[in-house]
Structure formats: structure tokens, C-alpha cells
Amino acid sequence: MKRIVVKIGSNALTRPDGRLDVTRMSALVDQIAWLRQHDCEVILVSSGAVACGRRELDNVDHELDSVEQRQLFSALGQAKLIGLYYDLFREYHIHVGQVLTMKENFEPGEQYRNQRACMRVMLENDVLPIVNENDTVSVTELMFTDNDELSGLIAQMMEADTLVLLSNIDGIYTGNPNDPQSQLIKEVAPNTDLTEYIQTEKSSAGRGGMQSKYATATKIQQAGIRVVIANGKRENVLVDLMKQPETTPHTLFKCS
């Protein structure tokens, strides 16, 4: 059985107006269920809580700073997000469990061991872990850079075979992805420097961007875990990456 960490970014889960794309979310759940039916253990790292919560309130009573907004919207949105995942996975008789974590839980020690043990017992009992940062209490220096960093730490902690980073782009290009002259980089060997090709713009819905995905991918590749960057909005992308990777656009960071 292969162990796969799938990270779904906010841009893969939201519509252009910033609202949650439930149709896309449902399609990704269908694909994760397919992976589990084909001898894959899956750990899901899902963004989208803040985007969910932001759309729950039309206005707030007073001016909130960025930390207050993040705490409020994540508290509202996380409940909505996990509820939707619960309903969607239940159609496949898949039990899900929520894991809210913080950066300090990945420091060596008891908290690290407890978190790893919790996720191990979930997998042993066929429960799908759904991981996200605990945004209600993680602020400023306590925060992960983004869920790309979090998913990489989870992949290492749980000794995954593959980390899949899903966003709204097919992978790393030699230039601007909107430029017809740009080419998709399909494979990246260890110790290959691609910094000249990395776009520095942050994603519109989340905190990350291609720079973050590249940093995570190179670090996890060095740890001996293969990393795939792919487009979560592409139809059936997770299934196609398994069945026909040669014709499915993506960037693969090979570990050997």
C-alpha cells in the first residue's frame, strides 16, 4: 500500500468570486475515494477554511485587524469545511477525522510523538485524516508559511511515498504560464536549481504561491519523497496521475 499526502490549496477549492466551489470539492473527494480503492493510504491537507468563513459573514460589527479576521473566519470556516468533507466522504462509507495542528507540534518531543501516533492510529483504523493549521490560535511567528510547508512536514512525519500539491496551475513553467512560449517542466532531478523560473506572486485565495511549492518540493525531495505539483481544477487529475502520468500535465520532483 502506498501512502500519499494530498494537499489541496485554496485556489483549487474556490470559485473566481472567492466562494467555495463545492462541485470541485466533490470531484476531488471522488478521486481520493478512488485512490483508496486502489491500495493507497491518503492523508488530506486541505486549505479553504478562511475562504469559507469569510463568505459566511456579509459584514462585521467593527473594524478587525488581520489577525482577528483570520481567527474569526477560520473558526467559522473550519466547521463548514469539515462538515462538507464529512458529508461527501460518507457517500463512500469513508470515515474522516480532523487534525488541527500548529508549527510547534513538529518540534522534537512529546507533541510531535502524540500527533504522529494519532494519525497512525487513524490510518490503521481506515480513517482518513484531514489536516489543517489551527488558525484560531496560530498567529504571526507561530504560523506555518502556508499549507505547502505543513503538507511537507506531514509527508515527512508520516513517511509518505508521495506528496501531491494541488493548486490552479499545472506545475512549474519556464516563464509566465500565460505566455504561449513558456514550457511546462515535467521532471526535476535532485539538486536541480529552478529559481530562475519561479514566479514570486502569491496566490489570490491562499498564502502560498509557486515559490512556496518549489521550496517545499525541493526540501521533501531531498528527504527521499517524490513530489508532484499539479492542477486541482483539471478534471480527474489525481486518477490520471496514477493511470496515465505521461499524458497528464504536472511537474514531478524525482527522489532518485
Overall 3D form: globular
Low-confidence stretches: 204-208
- CATH C-level class: Alpha Beta
Helical content band: 25-40%
Radius of gyration: 18 Å
Supply the CATH architecture: 3-Layer(aba) Sandwich
CATH-assigned fold name: Carbamate kinase
Tell me, rounded to a whole number, the average pLDDT: 88
CATH superfamily label = Acetylglutamate kinase-like
Domains, number: 1
Structural class: alpha/beta
Count of runs of 4 or more consecutive helical residues: 8
Distance between the termini: 20 Å
Q: SSE order, as H and E? A: EHHEHHEHEHEEHEHE
Number of strands: 8
Largest sheet: 8 strands, mixed
Spatial ordering of strands, largest sheet = 3-4-2-1-5-7-8-6
| DSSP strand content | 15-25%
Task: Kindly describe this structure.
By secondary structure, the chain is α/β, with parallel strands linked by helices. The chain has a single domain, classed as Acetylglutamate kinase-like (Carbamate kinase), CATH 3.40.1160.10. Helix content is 38%, strand content 18%. It contains eight helices and eight strands. It has helices at residues 10-13, 22-37, 49-54, 66-90, 110-124, 147-157, 210-222, 237-243, and strands at 2-8, 40-46, 95-101, 127-133, 162-167, 187-188, 226-231, 251-253. An eight-stranded mixed sheet has the order 3-4-2-1-5-7-8-6, with helices on both faces. The radius of gyration is 18 Å and the shape is globular. The chain starts with a strand and ends with a strand. The model is unreliable at 204-208 (pLDDT under 50).
Explain briefly what this protein structure is.
With 256 residues, the protein is of the alpha/beta class.
